[in-house]
Amino acid sequence: MVVLAASVVSKSGKALVSRQFVDMSRSRIEGLLAAFPKLVGTGKQHTYVETENVRYVYQPIEALFLLVITNKQSNILEDLETLRLLSKLVPEYSPSLDEVGVCRAAFDLASAFDEAISLGNKENVTVAQIKQYCEMESHEEKLYKLVMQSKINETKDHMRRRVTEIEKSKIDRGKTEKAFAPLRSPNDFSDTNSRGAGLGGDPIFADSFTQKPKGVPSALTATSKVAGGMKLGKAKKTNQFLESLKAEGELISEDTQPSGSQSKLSSVPPSDPIAVAIEEKINVTVKRDAGIHNFDIQGTLALQVLNDTDGFIQLQIKNQDLPGLSFKTHPYINKELFNSQQIIGAKDLNRPFPSGQNETPLVKWRIQELEESSLPLSVNCWPSVSGNETYVNIEYEASEMFDLHNVVISIPLPALRGAPSVRQIDGEWKYDSRNSLLEWSIILIDQSNRSGSMEFAVPAADPSTFFPISVGFSASSTFSNLKVTSILPLREGNPPKFSQRIQLVTDNYLVI
Q1: 3-state helix/strand/coil string of 30-81
Q2: Do 285 and 470 form a contact (C-beta atoms < 8 A)?
Q3: What pTM, to 2 d.p., does this model score?
Q4: Residue 96 — very low, low, confident or very high, per pLDDT cuts 50/70/90?
Q5: Where does the MHD domain start and stop, copy by copy (predicted)?
């Protein structure tokens, strides 16, 4: 079989789309197409016409003809099979089957014809495969977009944190300015100044930890009204920034400044005076055929002290000794004390930890050289093509080390007209048609369901379409098992109460 050309022509013989697959002159093609309307009779049942040199195999499509021109030696059954494949492609790319609709979709139709026929021979492809080839989907492009999206999300999270810190710092600065209001007596000024200087108001130490405005303005500067005017201008810019984030659909939690009648103590939320936040983030890329591309853990210990008087403390910690675990402490932390006794304390014992509503990072660590057996969750995907459908089996296996919460496994899908057919699943599923993703969610993975599976079917597609798979979850324990065991007060009195929040989260978890 040799296909000379494939065309969509009007009943008057006008060629709307035409592709030739052998070396022929333009006048030769135009002559063959011009002769076709004269050869087509009315009331005939067959859909082919033969001349001395070529065979016309055609099919009426409303007011048009889909035409395939072959040599007379070709197999008529193969010609009809080629015509049937092309007849399915035309409605896919041209919603309106008239001259205007076909002319608008001419470029897409010509590209689809090229995928169906190569050098005059029909390719063994389906309509779904041709659509995928024309869309030029790339596994590397999808991976690049996922990586870039994760960086964008990380940047947005950083922006939101900075906006919240700026708003909170403005609230704290507003309280300080109220303390220097001109209606106060001189004794009030001296009390406030002595309190700021004696209870952790060291400008260098506070600035290094929390990046708050350095120092406390003097009474003369506070009463000059300049600071008030500058504050109004800055507040307006920050609110515009918040509004722009809201316009993008981001959820921003805004802190409201307490009224002037409220005291500083009344604004402190009812919680423990000292709070410790320990968080580890997983960054891992797993190969679909087994093996790890990269696997590391990054952790942070942050401290929040509500009252100035509770800042004169040290933290006693303990952790699991793991290969590849390395710590990095804040420059104002006593490194020798930390390395020898695992105690987090300031170099200068007369300097307290900064207080306020912000968390202060004190220690960071990283765990490298982890093996595949240390993965909290392994995901295996097995796509297989059968006829006109692709059956995808996905299974997960969770480690005994962690109980995982809010697990979401996102599988990319080819472009679909409807939701995939899910045959079996352990958990819940949701189809994101906008991003063409199937999200498999499990609320909790514990001792009762360390493994699970899901099976679904979609039209025939390339197996690489279902990668990279993105995984997200959280856990209430960490790899390092780092925790604060006690609070050591540096001044007389009982150690203050403290709480600690420990969690493991995914930062970037991909199966490629």
Answers
A1: HHHHHHHHHHCCCCCCCCEEECCCEEEEEEEECCEEEEEEEECCCCHHHHHH
A2: no
A3: 0.50
A4: confident
A5: 271-512
